[in-house]
Amino acid sequence: MIPKLVAPQWMSDALCAQVDTETFFPEQGESNRVAKRICRRCDVQAECLAYAVKHRMPYGVWGGKSARERLRRSA
Ligand code: SF4
Q: Do 60 and 71 meet the contact criterion of CB atoms below 8 Å apart?
């Protein structure tokens, strides 16, 4: 049996759920400034960043930080 995935409660308040997901996963060389600007206004930024660091999310902007910035934070 495949386990059911349950999204954390904070995700229901995610501001990024209201915009195009691709904004948060820019191609290499593209700016992530728009995503970071949205994150700064998001009520769950701290929870999102903690989640991404804990789960070592390898791509995209989470909690206002790029994957590279999150790696530095967890080192
Ligand atoms: S902090 Fe950014 S990536 Fe995280 S839930 Fe909010 S808008 Fe989405």
A: no
How many domains is the chain built from?
1
- Tens of pLDDT along the chain (75 residues) come to 887 888 999 999 999 999 999 999 999 999 999 999 999 999 999 999 999 999 999 999 999 999 999 998 776
> From the CB of 62, is ligand 1 less than 6 Å away?
yes
User: Which residues span the domain enclosing 59?
Assistant: 29-75
From the CB of 64, is ligand 1 less than 6 Å away?
A: yes
Helix (H, G, I), strand (E, B) or coil at 62: strand
Q: What is the pTM of this model?
A: 0.90
